[in-house]
Amino acid sequence: MTAATATLPSILIVDDEMGILDTLRILLKNAGFRINTACGGKAGLEQLESEMPDIVLTDVRMPMVGGLDVLKAAREKDPDLPVILMTAQADLRSAIQAVNAGAYHYIQKPFVNDEIIAVMRRAAEHRQLRVENKSLRQEIRRRSVTDLGRPVGQSKAWIEILRLAETVAPTESTVLIQGESGTGKEVIAKYIHDLSARAEGPFLSINCGALPESLLESELFGHVKGSFTGAVKDKAGLFTAAAGGTFFLDELGETTPSTQVKLLRVLQNREVIPVGATEALSTDTRVLAATNRDLEEEMKRGSFRSDLFYRLNVFALHLPPLRVRRDDIPLLADTFLNRRAEVRSENVKVLSEAARQIMLEYAWPGNVRELENALERAVILTPGDEISADALPERVTARKSEPLVSDRAPLNPALDVIERSYIMWVLNNEGGNKTRTAEVLGIDPSTLYRKLSRYGMDV
Question: What's this model's pTM, rounded to 2 decimal places?
Answer without folding.
Answer: 0.61
